[in-house]
Specification:
The protein is α+β, with helices and mostly antiparallel strands and 234 residues long. It has helices at residues 39-49, 99-106, 120-126, 136-140, 204-207; strands at 3-6, 9-12, 53-54, 56-61, 67-72, 75-80, 83-87, 109-113, 144-145, 154-155, 160-172, 179-191, 210-212, 218-220.
């Protein structure tokens, strides 16, 4: 393909547009400069822009053996050699750490449980700020399962669990609403037999996961479409 260089930018000389495309350019934009805004306003704009976000329903355990459950939507898979995930519990508005971070510094292991639609209410209940000595499995009504390689428990009502060892915690910023990016290596996948396909993948038509939007809103994965990988431009 021929390329046209314009200033510091390089772009294709010919734009390729699919027949029937609904793509259009927006005519105007508002610039919201983060340094000029309140941190809470930046937080709200971020949450309502980056979505839907998958939910990591994270199980940890304290040094005293108290189980903890908490959902986090700053979450994703980030590699496969080794298989790894990241999630980020933000520092609370009062500047203190969430129980998940406190636990991980004491016992550097965790389990990510996925969140299907059927457990949405119980997951939401577990997000309440219980005291550190409260077992959220019990408080939210979940059935605990022993893990194979790590101390934190798994959720029987979740169809997929990722047993992980903590590799590192990367702080981003400091003070209220700052990030604590937790990087974990997956040691074991647990997949419910009725949702595991012969090729080792999870049946997307059955798992029925929910995602996080902004405010109190969530989404499902029920409305899906497929796109084949593009061929090389001619």
């Amino acid at each position: 393909m021929a390329w046209e260089v314009t200033g510091r930018r390089k772009r294709p000389a010919k734009r390729i547009t699919k027949v029937g495309s609904t793509m259009k350019a927006h005519s105007s934009f508002s610039a919201l400069v983060t340094a000029e805004r309140e941190r809470r306003d930046n937080f709200k704009t971020l949450l309502s822009s980056v979505m839907p976000r998958p939910i990591a329903f994270v199980s940890t355990i304290s040094a005293d053996g108290v189980p903890n459950l908490a959902p986090f939507s700053f979450f994703n898979g980030v590699g496969s050699n080794p298989p790894a995930v990241i999630f980020s519990p933000c520092t609370k508005a009062d500047g203190t750490d969430k129980d998940t971070i406190v636990n991980l510094r004491q016992v550097p292991e965790f389990v990510v449980n996925v969140v299907p639609f059927d457990i949405r209410h119980e997951m939401n209940q577990a997000s309440f700020a219980y005291p550190p000595d409260v077992d959220e499995f019990d408080a939210a009504g979940f059935t605990p399962l022993e893990s194979r390689f790590v101390k934190p428990l798994r959720i029987a009502e979740s169809p997929v669990h990722l047993e992980c060892k903590l590799l590192q915690i990367v702080p981003v910023g400091d003070g209220p609403l700052s990030a604590n990016i937790c990087v974990g290596e997956i040691l074991c996948f647990h997949v419910a037999d009725d949702q595991l396909l012969p090729d080792g993948t999870v049946d997307v038509t059955k798992i029925d996961l929910v995602g996080r939007l902004g405010g109190e809103d969530y989404s499902t994965i029920r409305d899906r479409f497929a796109l084949p990988k593009p061929a090389a431009p001619q």
